[in-house]
Specification:
The structure is a single chain. By secondary structure, the protein is of the alpha+beta class. The protein has a domain at 1-79 and 236-341: DD-peptidase/beta-lactamase superfamily (Beta-lactamase, 3-Layer(aba) Sandwich), CATH 3.40.710. The protein has helices at 31-43, 84-98, 125-129, 148-154, 161-166, 182-196, 200-212, 237-248, 263-267, 326-339; strands at residues 52-60, 63-69, 218-219, 233-234, 252-253, 256-257, 286-287, 295-299, 303-308, 313-320. The strands form three sheets. It has a six-stranded antiparallel beta sheet. Helix 2 (84-98) packs parallel to helix 6 (182-196).
C-alpha cells in the first residue's frame, strides 16, 4: 500500500524469540536524554506525574536491547493489556481470514441486527475494526458519568459483552463517522469465535500464543464465553514485545506466515476520521505515536506496544498512569521511543 514504510525482515543472524529473546547492546541516540526520561518514570514517587512505570523494553533488529522494571515488577510479572487486546483481536481476525473463514468486507454476522429493515445489518467487520460502525457508544472511564464501556465491562453488560454492544443503536450511517468504542471489539471477538466454530480459547493458543512463544498470555472471557477482546489479555512485557514483533515482521514468524499477506498494512492504513479528531487510527491499531510511519497498540493507564518499521524498533511500556496524566505520558512515550535508533 502506497506511503507505508516497508516492514523489515528478521536478520538472518538473529534467532526468533520463540523460546528466549536474543539480546544486544542498545542503540541510543541521546543517552543523557534517555536517562532523564527514565528518572521521571522509575525514580519518581508513585504519585508523580506519570504514576507507576512497571516496565520499559526496547527491541532493535529483533534483539532485546533494553529492559527495565520498577515498582516491584519483574520480567515474570504479567501486566494488563487493557485495549492492547484490541490489536490481538485484529490478529485473530486476520488468522481467520487466512483460513478463509471470515471476510472483513462483508456485512458482519451479528444476530441482533438481522431484523428486516435494521440499518445496522449493513455494518461490515472492516467498519468495526476501523471504529466506524456508526453505533452509539460512550467511551468514558470516569466513574459516576454516563459510560457504555464501564456498563459493558462491570455493569449490566458484563455477562455478555458483545450482546450489550450489539444492542446499541446507530448514531451515524455506517462508515461515515469515526468513534473509538470498546464495544465494537467485543462484537468482533464474538464474530471471530462464531467464524471459527470451535473452542476459540484453544484457537487463540494454537494460532497466536504458542507459535510466538507467548507462554504468559492469559485472555479473559465473559460469562457466555466471549473473549473480552476490548480489554483483557494479561502478558509479561516480553510477550507483548513478541506480539509487536509479529507485526513488525509482516505477520511472518520463523518463516511461517501467520497473518495474511497485506494484513499488517491493512492494520496501519489510516481510517477516515472527521475533522477535529487528532489521533490517527488504522484497523484496531493507532498510528503515529512513535513518529511518522509508526503504529501502536495502546491501552488504558499507559500500556503501549509501539512499532517503528523504519528503525526496526519495538518499544513496550506497562504501567499505571492516572487518566489525567494521559497526555503527559503520551509525550513522554514519544520522547522515549525517539531515543532509540
Amino acid at each position: 500500500m502506497g506511503g507505508l514504510p516497508p516492514l523489515p525482515a528478521q536478520p538472518r543472524d538473529v534467532a526468533w524469540p520463540t523460546r528466549d529473546w536474543p539480546t544486544g547492546a542498545p542503540a541510543v541516540r541521546d543517552r543523557a536524554r534517555l536517562d532523564g526520561l527514565l528518572a521521571r518514570a522509575f525514580d519518581a514517587p508513585a504519585e508523580g506525574p506519570l504514576g507507576k512505570t512497571y516496565a520499559l523494553l526496547a527491541v532493535q533488529g529483533g534483539r532485546l536491547t533494553f529492559e527495565r522494571y520498577g515498582f516491584g515488577a519483574t520480567a515474570e510479572s504479567t501486566q494488563p493489556s487493557w485495549s492492547m487486546a484490541k490489536s490481538m483481536t485484529q490478529a485473530l481476525v486476520g488468522m481467520l481470514a487466512l483460513d478463509g473463514r471470515l471476510d472483513v468486507a462483508a456485512p458482519a454476522d451479528v444476530p441482533e441486527w438481522q431484523a428486516p429493515g435494521d440499518p445496522r445489518a449493513a455494518i461490515t467487520t472492516d467498519q468495526l475494526l476501523r471504529m466506524s460502525s456508526g453505533l452509539a457508544f460512550v467511551e468514558d472511564y470516569v466513574p459516576g458519568s454516563v459510560s457504555d464501556v464501564l456498563e459493558m465491562l462491570y455493569g449490566s453488560g458484563k455477562a455478555d459483552t458483545a450482546a450489550y454492544a450489539a444492542g446499541r443503536p446507530l448514531a451515524h450511517p455506517p462508515g461515515t463517522f469515526w468513534s473509538y468504542a470498546s464495544g465494537t471489539t467485543n462484537i468482533v471477538a464474538r464474530l471471530a469465535a462464531k467464524a471459527h466454530g470451535g473452542d476459540f480459547a484453544a484457537y487463540m493458543r494454537e494460532r497466536l500464543f504458542q507459535p510466538l512463544g507467548m507462554t504468559s498470555a492469559t485472555p479473559k472471557f465473559d460469562a457466555v464465553g466471549t473473549f473480552i477482546g476490548s480489554s483483557f489479555c494479561f502478558c509479561t512485557p516480553r510477550d507483548f514485545a513478541r506480539f509487536g514483533l509479529l507485526y513488525l515482521r509482516d505477520g511472518v514468524w520463523e518463516g511461517r506466515r501467520l497473518l495474511p499477506e497485506g494484513w499488517v498494512d491493512y492494520a496501519r492504513t489510516p481510517t477516515f476520521q472527521q475533522a477535529g479528531v487528532t489521533d490517527a487510527y488504522g484497523a484496531h491499531w493507532w498510528l503515529g505515536l512513535g513518529g511518522p510511519g509508526s503504529f501502536s497498540a495502546n491501552g488504558y493507564a499507559g500500556q503501549f506496544i509501539v512499532v517503528c518499521p523504519e528503525r526496526d524498533l519495538i518499544v513496550v511500556r506497562n504501567g499505571d498512569t492516572p487518566l489525567e496524566a494521559k497526555d503527559a505520558l503520551r509525550a513522554w512515550m514519544a520522547e522515549a521511543v525517539d531515543c532509540f535508533g
